[in-house]
Write a structure and sequence with these properties.
8-stranded parallel β-barrel; about 45% helix; about 290 residues; alpha/beta
Length: about 290
């Protein structure tokens, strides 16, 4: 199984073997991810639109995130568990931000938290670090800002926007985050940030030059049947279609009487069965 992945492990991978990260939302997903060799498991607020049926991530709450993070933690993965701080859990006050992050650590058993945003989040990051809570940053296309961005749009395509991303990344690293997710940014910008900051970068739609890569569990395994996949998603399976086919076979066997078979059913010992049949005859005759 190998040694448990920690903040120090992640930091030591800067410029080294790429970090592997995937989302997971329950113990089964966490077990699969861990057995496959994930370094990091992100319990993302993407649980809202990938599992719970919401249209975006904004409906995730602290209670939802604690529930799913705790489920992942029960799998006891070697991978480090990162709990996403949902929208409005770190926007109102520093005290509330620390309390919510602390609940993800204490009740959810997360080993670090992730939050979105650049320099405007520095006071929150500093407060969390002062409370001994490791923090992962997230820049670029930040899904919690979807309303402000006017949709899920690539960020940093113009010079000033790219400069802002670089400055934000350097500020987050200086503040003490142990890694930064870069989402939906041009390759050249992600490469520059990766070169300029001393902490690992983990890309999602940010090109090949980051220190690691992350995708959503459901996206890379093809669980969604009707959702259009983003450009940066590579599907390694189409498990949604496999699941439909398997269920269709099950239903067909039920309708035909082929399931369950004798080998899939339980029996009494012969003597007990004969006695029970005699009893049944009496009951039916009575």
């Amino acid at each position: 199984m190998g040694e448990k992945i920690t903040v120090a492990t992640v930091q030591a991978r800067k410029g080294g073997p790429p970090l592997t990260m995937v989302t997971a939302y329950d113990a089964v997903m966490a077990t699969i991810a861990d057995r496959a060799g994930a370094d990091l498991i992100l319990v993302g607020d993407s649980v809202a639109d990938n599992v719970l049926g919401f249209s975006d991530t904004l409906s995730a709450t602290v209670e939802i995130m604690i529930h799913h993070t705790a489920a992942v933690a029960r799998a006891r993965p070697r991978a480090m568990i990162i709990g996403d701080m949902p929208w409005l859990s770190y926007h109102i006050s520093l005290e509330e931000s620390v309390r919510n992050a602390g609940r993800l650590i204490r009740e959810g058993q997360a080993e670090a938290v992730k939050l979105e945003g650049g320099r405007k989040r520095l006071p929150v990051i500093e407060a969390l670090l002062a409370a001994e809570i490791p923090v992962m940053g997230h820049l670029g296309l930040t899904p919690q800002s979807v309303r402000v961005m006017g949709g899920y749009r690539v960020q940093g395509r113009r010079l000033e926007a790219a400069r802002t991303l670089v400055e934000d990344a350097r500020a987050l690293a200086a503040a003490g985050v142990f890694a930064i997710v870069l989402e939906g940014v041009p390759t050249i910008v992600a490469r520059a940030i990766t070169r300029l900051v001393p902490v690992p970068t983990i890309g999602i739609g940010a090109g090949p030059h980051c220190d690691g890569q992350v995708l959503v569990f459901h996206d890379l395994l093809g669980w969604h049947l009707d959702r259009r996949k983003a450009k940066f998603v590579r599907q390694y399976a189409q498990l949604g279609e496999v699941a439909v086919s398997a269920l269709q076979s099950f239903f067909a066997d039920v309708r035909s009487g082929a399931f369950p078979s004798e080998s899939e059913s339980y029996r009494m010992e012969e003597e007990e069965e004969r006695a029970f049949e005699a009893l049944l005859n009496e009951l039916e005759g009575g």
